[in-house]
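FORM 12-B: Structure-to-Sequence Request
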């Protein structure tokens, strides 16, 4: 598959990442299908796309007609067969559970010709394992976008054990078409960014647990001391504490290295349903915000 052949992209999952990726592909001019298991999730995906774009309209950075065009290029659906029909690239962004991802890929494969490239947006799971569950391990690659996908410049392009060099070249060229920068990463737990970023966030929970500083001061220290746009807790609340815990569990399980042990406080917050902005409460409470 050559990047010039791509006319339609199918995105499986309409959560924060799936909707963001669908938006990016549509803004680059591609026809897009965005699929989720229930219509309410598809509708929520469209809301995630339209909301921030309408803020850009208010700021005079886009017209309402441009927003309508971005949305119109995206076909929302709950049907996998219709979502993948005519697509040259399928990007999966469903929750970070290996069995679920394999099941979604099996469904997609039933309706996809063999030349279609499969890309997973997993944060830390094995591309090789997912690829091995399909009949196209050489045309299976990781394309790891960052939240918010329409804003963040980077995509990690992950080479699984059997990913062909043609598929890597294809994925990198496609990133350029999206206006993104790609870095090629050999498969390893957490890849590059999450291997560095998530343990830092995890350690912030340990600092908080030890009473070394308040959450506000830990965030302030990292923002003012390292020029991060968000402190570790603001970022954890933004990306989801469950996502952070999943990544730490993967790093710990895959390496057996105690330096990746999830913080008990992070685990406790997730158990309590304090997942961050999406549930109204994480490290901080958002229920009182406008
Ligand atoms: N679509 C299009 N444009 C958008 C947008 C969207 N969904 N969301 C924001 N924007 C635009 C805004 O319109 C604005 O544009 P302008 O500069 O032209 O006016 C610009 O992006 C900045 O947005 P805001 O003014 O609303 O907000 P901030 O300036 O406060 O920036 C932020 C918000 C970009 C989220 C910034 O706080 C940031 O960079 N935070 C760190 C994010 C980060 O580290 N992400 C990676 C997380 S790790 C990850 O994703 C890996 C995963 O596996 C867990």
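FORM 12-B RESPONSE
SEQUENCE OUT:
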């Amino acid at each position: 598959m050559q990047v010039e052949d791509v006319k339609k992209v199918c995105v499986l999952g309409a959560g924060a990442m799936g909707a963001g990726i669908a938006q990016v592909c549509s803004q680059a001019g591609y026809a897009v299908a965005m699929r989720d298991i229930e219509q309410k999730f598809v509708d929520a995906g469209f809301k995630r796309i339209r909301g921030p774009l309408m803020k850009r309209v208010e700021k005079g950075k886009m017209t309402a007609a441009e927003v309508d065009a971005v949305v119109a290029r995206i076909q929302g659906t709950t049907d996998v067969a219709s979502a993948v029909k005519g697509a040259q690239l399928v990007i999966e962004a469903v929750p970070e559970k290996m069995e679920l991802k394999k099941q979604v890929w099996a469904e997609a494969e039933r309706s996809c010709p063999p030349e279609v490239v499969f890309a997973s947006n997993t944060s830390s799971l094995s591309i090789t394992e997912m690829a091995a569950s399909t009949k196209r391990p050489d045309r299976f690659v990781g394309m790891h976008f960052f939240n918010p996908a329409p804003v963040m410049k980077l995509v990690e392009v992950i080479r699984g054990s059997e990913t062909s060099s043609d598929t890597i070249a294809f994925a990198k060229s496609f990133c350029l078409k999206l206006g993104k920068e790609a870095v090629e990463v050999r498969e390893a737990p957490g890849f590059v960014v999450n291997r560095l970023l998530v343990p830092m966030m995890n350690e912030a929970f340990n600092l908080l647990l030890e009473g070394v500083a308040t959450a506000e001061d830990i965030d302030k220290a990292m923002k003012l001391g390292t020029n991060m746009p968000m402190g570790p807790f603001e970022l954890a609340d933004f990306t989801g504490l469950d996502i952070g815990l999943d990544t730490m569990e993967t790093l710990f399980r895959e390496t057996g290295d105690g330096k990746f042990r999830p913080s008990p406080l992070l685990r406790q917050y997730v158990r309590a349903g304090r997942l961050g902005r999406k549930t109204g409460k994480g490290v901080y409470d958002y229920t009182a915000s406008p």
